[in-house]
Write a structure and sequence with these properties.
With 480 residues, the protein is α/β, with parallel strands linked by helices. The protein has 3 domains: 127 residues, 3-Layer(aba) Sandwich (Rossmann fold), CATH 3.40.50.12160; 246 residues, pyruvate-formate lyase- activating enzyme; 74 residues, Beta Barrel (OB fold (Dihydrolipoamide Acetyltransferase, E2P)). It contains 15 helices and 19 strands. The protein has a 6-stranded parallel beta sheet, with helices on both faces. Strand 13, helix 14 and strand 14 form a beta-alpha-beta unit. Helix 10 packs parallel to helix 11 and helix 14 runs parallel beside helix 15. The two termini are 40 Å apart. The chain binds 5'-deoxyadenosine (5AD) and iron/sulfur cluster. The site of 5'-deoxyadenosine has 15 residues, from strand 13.
Length: 480
């Protein structure tokens, strides 16, 4: 490919799509593309899509309408634009996308991104094509790595996919169909990627996977390693100050992983552990394979290991057959666990999943009313957690300039955004911040003038003894 063409990638849905979008861009840059932030001047537009709920999938089609108009306008100016649809809608709907949106040139499934350079050439030459096979070769081996300059431009935190797919088959969920069977990347491949990121200045790594705690990648000894072992290994790497992982399934919360929350200072005290419902009857119908008591037991063991752990969750209201009593069980679970926060969704029937064929679908108005009540309960926990942070000193990794001049923003160990009046030279550093004010979605604080503080101080270890157990941390859609 000659000359510089412009690439616009838009991600919908979970962090894995964000990660995949970056890897697609990394693979296309050596092919002569440069990234642009606006679709209007792009030669190649990639929409990396989400299929988890009907609304998410429909968003893609309305976006494709806009892209079709851009493509037409470009054609009138004698400029070719290619439109590619990637991600879970591509995987689930395949050539149906081209039927519904004929402006689309390429439909590429989530396992085939390494083939993009070839698909672009073929689509430009032969017209629209669909590639949604699950190939035997490992896409991660074939996707290009970002340059140090690109890593630096993306900031001091990064996602790394370590596991993909899901074998759990919750009866509401499309992930096992769109992302396929559970696979884990080998330990050494993950380690090499994390080393490269850390060498370019990344300080916090979030390991991602639809069912990340089911990780069982091959270790250097040829045996499968658990997620806990992988985390331990990564914590030893130079420059890796903070580790997180998401999204986890309660069944895979193994003893060694729980212990890692006690023993690994780099592992941040925050965990997204979706439960979906507080009712045993609904959990069984959802095929979650755990009861409310099992879940509460995992939570108790986690909190015994790490008392200040900020727990977040996902909930679905209005799953088929959910009664008022089932919903009351969900509300009582929220108050039992005292979540740091949670996402809650109205059940969305997904074609091809067992839930779609179940009797007793719940009326939309009932779902809306339950969602509102659940969100109020979650918001109360969130507010309580943030209030509990007032006056505390938390270690903050500064990520970027803040909303106002002279302000920078970072994250607390619990993943809360923290705004501080301080020099931009601190971006990339971890510093102690005393929380002076609490707003609904972020904290405000001042640099703590403690003896021993420096621009890149060592990790701050929390004893957690006086931290509240409830609060809210923002985590985006992921799975599990
Ligand atoms: N309807 C509503 N919410 C869903 N989720 C997954 N599938 C559905 C569905 N069909 C939610 C779950 C999951 C999160 C990523 O999205 O709560 O944890
Ligand atoms: Fe797998 Fe999570 Fe979907 Fe259940 S909700 S099938 S665990 S991705």
């Amino acid at each position: 490919m000659t000359g510089s063409r412009k690439l616009f990638v838009k991600s919908f849905g979970c962090q894995m799509n964000v990660y995949d979008s970056r890897r697609m861009a990394d693979t296309l840059v050596p092919e002569g593309y440069t990234e642009t932030a606006t679709a209007e001047d792009a030669d190649l537009i990639i929409l990396n899509t989400c299929h988890i709920r009907e609304k998410a999938a429909e968003k893609v089609y309305s976006e494709l309408g806009r892209m079709r108009r851009l493509k037409q306008a470009a054609a009138e100016a004698d400029r070719d634009v290619l439109i590619a649809v990637a991600g879970c809608v591509a995987q689930a709907e395949g050539d149906e996308i081209i039927r519904r949106a004929p402006a689309v040139d390429i439909v590429v499934g989530s396992q085939n991104y390494h083939r993009l350079p070839e698909l672009i050439v073929r689509a430009g030459r032969d017209g629209p094509l669909v590639d949604t096979e699950f190939p035997v070769d490992d896409k991660f081996d074939r996707l290009a790595a970002p340059s140090a300059a690109t890593i630096r431009a993306r900031g001091v935190t990064a996602f790394v996919t370590v596991q993909e797919g899901c074998d759990k088959f919750c009866s509401f969920c499309v992930v096992p169909y769109t992302r396929g069977a559970e696979t884990s990347r080998p330990v050494e491949k993950v380690t090499a990627e994390v080393e490269r990121l850390a060498a370019a200045g990344v300080r916090e790594i979030t390991l991602i996977g639809q069912n990340v705690n089911a990780y069982h990648g091959a270790g250097p000894d040829g045996r499968p390693w658990s997620l806990a072992r992988l985390l331990e290994r990564l914590a030893e790497l130079r420059g890796v100050e903070r580790l997180r992982y998401t999204t986890s399934h309660p069944l895979d919360m193994a003893d060694d992983l729980i212990a890692a929350h006690r023993d690994l200072p780099a592992l941040m005290p925050q965990l997204h552990l979706p439960v979906q419902s507080g009712s045993d009857r609904i959990l069984a119908a959802m095929n979650r394979r755990h009861t409310r008591t099992d879940y509460l037991d995992v939570v108790a063991r986690l909190r015994a290991a790490r008392p200040d752990l900020a727990l977040t969750s996902d909930f679905i209201v209005g799953f088929p057959g959910e009664t008022d009593a089932d919903f009351a069980d969900t509300l009582s679970l929220v108050s039992d666990v005292q979540y740091a926060g949670a996402f809650s969704f109205k059940y969305s029937s997904r074609p091809g999943t067992p839930g779609a064929d179940m009797d007793e679908q719940v009326a939309e108005a009932v779902k809306s009313e339950r969602l509102q009540r659940l969100q109020q309960a979650i918001d109360r926990s969130h507010a309580a957690f943030n209030r509990g942070c007032l006056g505390r000193t938390l270690s903050v990794l500064f990520e970027r300039p803040g909303r106002h001049a002279g302000q920078i923003v970072g994250r607390s160990p619990y993943l809360q955004p923290v705004q501080v009046d301080a020099s931009e030279s601190l971006i990339g550093a971890i510093a102690d911040v005393t929380v002076t004010e609490v707003a609904s979605n972020s904290l405000f604080g001042a640099l703590a003038t403690r003896a021993g503080w420096g621009p890149t101080p060592p990790r701050t270890v929390f004893d957690g003894s006086s931290l509240p157990l409830q609060g809210r941390v923002r985590v985006r859609d992921a799975g599990a």
